[in-house]
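Let us practice reading a record.
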Amino acid sequence: GWRLRIAVHAFAGDGAQLDALLAAGMHIIVDGAVCDPSEEGAALRAVAARIPLARLMLTSNAPLHTPQSI
């Protein structure tokens, strides 16, 4: 009864990459970069909003990655 599940860590790709990963059945891990106030953070938030909740995972990567100031 094993079922292989794969998670993509620290996803920071675009919508086309997200679609390909989801179509392959992968889970998506979004880290603190999603909180970054920069344009890159805003773009990541827009893409991350499309991830189905059942396939979304969060990680902080603290203290090495953003958001250090939050």
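A brief commentary: The CA atoms of residues 22 and 46 lie 16 Å apart.
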